[in-house]
Amino acid sequence: MSVGARLRRSIVPYLLSLPAGLWLLVFFLIPLLTIISVSLMVGNPVEGFNLTWNFDVYPDAVSQYATQYGRSFLYGGISTLIALVVMYPVAYWIAFHGGRHKSVLLFLILLPFFVSFVIRILSWQFILADEGIVLGTLKDIGLLGEGVHVLSTPGAVIAGLTYDALPFMALPLYVSLEQIDRAHVDAAADLYANARQRFLRVILPLSAPGVYAGILLVAITNVGDYLSASILGGPNTTMIGNVIQTQYVQNSNYPLASALALMLMTTLLVGMFLYPRTFGTRRLQEYT
Amino acid sequence: MIQDNASFFAQIRPVLEAEQSIGYDLIVISDGWELTQMIHNRWLIPLDRTRMPNFTKYAGPIAKDPSFDPGNTYTVTWQAGLTGLAYDPRKTGREITSVKDLFDPAFEGKVGMMADNTELGAVGMLALGNTDQPNSTPDDWRAAAELLQKQRDDGIVRQYYDQSYIKALENGDTWVTQAWSGDVFQANNSGFPELEFVVPEEGVMLWHDNSMIPLHAAHPVDAMEWIDFYYRPEIQAMIADWVWYLSPVPDAKEIIATKIDDPTVANSPLVFPPPSLERQFREYYTFKGVDDHEEYTSIFDPIIQS
Fold first, then answer.
1. How far lies B36's CA from each of A144, A271, B292, in Å?
2. In angstroms, rounded to a whole number, what is the distance separating the alpha carbons of residues B298 and A83?
3. Rounded Cα distance, A143 and A148, in Å
4. Does residue B153 lie in a domain region?
């Protein structure tokens, strides 16, 4: 091989990765560095912000908003688990028993996306109103006490988060279940595995990549969500997304907002990094 | 899209800081922290009163010489409104007359408060009998915050609402709520005639949406003429008859009553307030500077977001 060809071979991969690298640099690295530097600034919107390497903003942010942080992970976690438990059977059924209607069924799951999330969550506000079509009716026939309400409770916020997560959970689950080679399942049956064993020892492990991807997709969006809490929540359901929004837009406290956003991102990244390790196999990481 | 004062201001501030035109000749901002910053930073073009004969001739007392912009140097009221209370008499079972009713344990979980810390602080101070809020001090704010925190801790507050408070009242989620006058009027005319707006005995907060001309505007003189055009009584009559907020031009009343023939609006005290009602109007605190605003925010924000 000539020197020229060898050189070409060694730089071509780098050239090919240039567009992706540039993309990362412009749309991820530079904004990220900007946020980091803004978080370490001190000042106010009128006199301007100066970079003073004020690391105190981080402990301050933690002590001020630890509750909202914890709550975000709690709500995010619960809603992710519920979405998984609800959507696994649905995805399973479509993948194994959907037959020729599979694409129609998938389309039905995606259908809500054709309406904006804000509109859908506002509709829940309307449906779940204290004297709305659900609670009002139940109260009229005496099944519920007058004082009962669903809106403004943690339950309503978690329900909103779960609701939004359902399609995001269903799709990766469906893909991984659909890809399972039916011969494996048949082989298990030939070896006298009963239905339960076939599911627990063959199908469930083989669908793990879908479970992994679904959890990742849903948990990350839900922990940082603020719409559900602001529309369905009450005085004690503020999530960290709401705090970041208020600090950024209302109070123009850019350093604090940046610090909060960075901490949220870091926590999620660490979680994402540790998660496949605790979850197990190497295959999972290859999948993602 | 322009959503509210704060996010609009966040958009235009960097442009104004860079000493460039924001592309508007005329903007409308409510009195509050954002407007105060516009004035403090001298980001507005002072108005030439000689070009505004209609304003001089027809402006009513609510538009003249507001505490946030003495002498109307930079701003002229476009429309004004009141922040009082609204309630559903069928639910409360009694008449609501005072801001203290917002703190009544009988309405546990059924009271709507506003998520805007200016509105929240103002009603807290009203409840403590503070009617001279432009001269309030951090001690007054803390006392109000204590009262509001207790209201929250006792489970009386259903939610701290944005504009959606009126939906919550219509849906029965709240029985009593802080409310803007025009919204209640509109709700009355769109299927909820039972809702009532109350001017509490402690007073009612008066706010202004103000026209102003940003620095570097391309056509400032045209903008001034336009602002003044709104003060012609026949023009103001059309606006008031459409938006149902407080009209800054008292002479428009006659035109709405006769030419437009809409007695509901012409006779509404919430569009053309009688002097007895005007005496109940209270002004908001105007922030002196950044530190002042930060202190206020740090006192009231923890109540709203916890």
1. 49, 44, 12
2. 37
3. 10
4. no
Distances (CA, A) of B185 to A237, B191, B224: 31, 11, 31
Question: What domain range is B9 assigned to?
Answer: 5-80+206-269
- The H-or-E segment that residue A48 falls in is strand A48-51
Assess if residue B146 is contained within a domain.
Answer: no
| DSSP output for A125-167 | HHHTSTTSTTHHHHHHTTSS-TT---TTSHHHHHHHHHHHHHH
CA angle B281, B287, B290 (to 5 degrees): 165
A159 vs B173: CA distance, rounded Å? 18
Check CB contact of A119 with chain B, cutoff 8 Å.
no
Q: Let me know if residue B150 belongs to a domain.
A: no
pLDDT of residue A287: 47
User: For the residues B214-237, what does the mean pLDDT come to?
Assistant: 96
Residues B280-298 have pLDDT tens digits of: 999 999 999 889 999 999 9
DSSP code for B246: B
Which residues of B, range 285-304, sit inside 8 Å of A by Cβ?
289-290, 294, 297, 301
Residue of A nearest to B6 (CA): A250
Q: Please name the member of B152, B157, B306 whose beta carbon is closest to the beta carbon of A67.
A: B306
Domain A61-287 has CATH 1.10.3720.10: yes
Q: What is the mean pLDDT of each successive set of 10 residues along chain A, which is 288 residues long?
A: 75 88 93 95 84 92 94 97 97 93 93 90 91 89 85 94 94 94 93 93 90 93 94 93 91 92 94 77 50
Q: What is the CATH number of the domain that holds B60?
A: 3.40.190.10
Q: Considering the entire predicted model, what is its pTM?
A: 0.85
Whether B151 maps to a domain, the answer reads no
Domain count, chain B: 1
What are the backbone angles phi and psi of residue B92, rounded to the nearest 5°?
A: -70, -30
Coil, strand or helix: which one is B174? Answer: coil
Complex ipTM? 0.80
Cα distances (Å, whole numbers) of residue A194 to A95, A186, A201, B255: 20, 11, 10, 85
Chain A, residues 268-287, CB within 8 A of chain B, namely: none
Residues of chain A found within 8 Å of residue B171, distances taken between Cβ atoms: 126, 129-132
The total of other beta-carbon atoms located within 10 Å of residue A136's CB is: 14
